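Q: What residues go here?
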């Protein structure tokens, strides 16, 4: 039986595409990642997966996935694919050199050997039948983009993998452009439930590592974990569990992480994901407006005890209205790092920030701040 399992995956892709419509005219949905999937039923299982996401620029991330597959039988060649949703919104929707416009540096290495891959542009849920892909030509895909605001095709990066008996290692990498909108600094989606396509219907040993950079306010929806306590944090990070997601969908609880530097890590044995990975960095004014519908445009105001942790948001802070506000703003970079202030007035103020976490050993040194922070302080 070839692709009778695929419609469920395709339905998920369509749902994600529908979700992305909210980006039209006020943002850019570029794509979502996807776990490698077999093109037909197999008895090969996923013993281990390490998914690592490193943000490498304001709107770029490097994805590295390490797999250990177990083949209980003799040598078996299997067609394996990686699905990527088409972009929507204020972005280029056209294929680039026959590939997704926002995925680059795609590589697959199996058992220490590079594996060549091809890309199919497809729109039919039964896109792989009788050993062939039902794909569109680049000309057909371009014509669709010209005629419609939203395209109905997506991309399948596929390759033939020869699984030897026993353990097989696949290393898979690519670079992706992150989505963004008027409410988000950046966002990334990654489909985890595709793991259910392999024989064991789970990942026996799963690790997720996320590094979105320094001084980041990161939201991760509770779609595959129950509580923020399941995550391992860097010593200087802080996390809080929010009861409702402040997204347009408002579909789930969300964990919010304030990370000075380092990896967020989630590990699970016998991992059966029932939801996908959503990483979002919201602009703080969106967070506060979601809490107070009557809030005016004075987003960041020292007198409101309201300052952003994320370095992405600091340029939105209003100019200080008085001497105390100026002192507070000049000390914001040090508060982010947990400095314990000798001034009771400053200490009391920063302890009201939901992101503040004391760091007993931190010593404030101006030269050790980021260049962006130093430039911002100079403008003050």
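A:
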């Amino acid at each position: 039986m070839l692709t009778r399992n695929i419609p469920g995956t395709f339905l998920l892709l369509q749902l994600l595409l529908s979700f992305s419509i909210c980006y039209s005219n006020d943002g850019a949905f570029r794509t979502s990642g996807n776990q490698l999937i077999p093109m037909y039923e197999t008895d090969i299982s996923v013993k281990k997966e390490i998914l690592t996401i490193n943000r490498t620029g304001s709107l770029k991330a490097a994805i590295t996935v390490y797999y250990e597959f177990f083949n209980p039988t003799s040598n078996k060649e299997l067609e394996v694919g990686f699905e990527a949703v088409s972009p929507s919104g204020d972005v280029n929707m056209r294929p680039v050199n026959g590939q997704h416009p926002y995925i680059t540096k795609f590589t697959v290495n199996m058992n220490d050997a590079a594996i060549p891959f091809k890309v199919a542009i497809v729109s039919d849920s039964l896109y792989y039948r009788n050993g062939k892909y039902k794909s569109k030509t680049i000309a057909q895909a371009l014509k669709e983009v010209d005629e419609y605001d939203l395209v109905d095709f997506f991309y399948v990066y596929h390759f033939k993998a020869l699984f030897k008996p026993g353990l097989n290692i696949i290393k898979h990498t690519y670079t992706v452009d992150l989505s963004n909108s008027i409410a988000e600094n950046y966002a990334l989606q990654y489909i985890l439930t595709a793991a259910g396509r392999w024989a064991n219907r789970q990942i026996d040993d799963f690790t997720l590592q996320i590094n979105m950079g320094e001084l980041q306010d990161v939201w991760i929806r509770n779609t595959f974990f129950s509580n923020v306590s399941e995550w391992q944090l860097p010593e200087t990070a802080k996390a809080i569990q929010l009861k409702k997601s402040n997204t347009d969908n408002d579909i789930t609880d969300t964990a919010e992480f304030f990370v000075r530097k380092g990896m967020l890590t989630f590990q699970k044995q016998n991992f059966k994901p029932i939801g996908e990975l959503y990483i979002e960095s919201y602009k703080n004014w969106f967070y506060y407006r979601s809490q107070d519908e009557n809030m005016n445009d004075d987003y960041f105001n020292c007198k409101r005890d309201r300052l952003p942790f994320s370095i992405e948001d600091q340029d939105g802070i209003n100019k200080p209205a008085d001497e105390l506000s100026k002192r507070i703003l000049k000390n914001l970079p040090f508060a982010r790092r947990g400095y314990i202030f000798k001034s009771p007035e400053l200490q009391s103020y920063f302890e009201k920030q939901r992101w503040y976490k004391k760091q007993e050993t931190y010593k404030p040194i101006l030269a050790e701040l980021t260049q962006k922070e130093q430039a911002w302080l100079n403008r003050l």
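A: Context that may help when evaluating the design: The chain has two domains: 6-282, 297-379. Helices lie at 6-19, 138-147, 284-291, 323-336, 344-351, 371-379.
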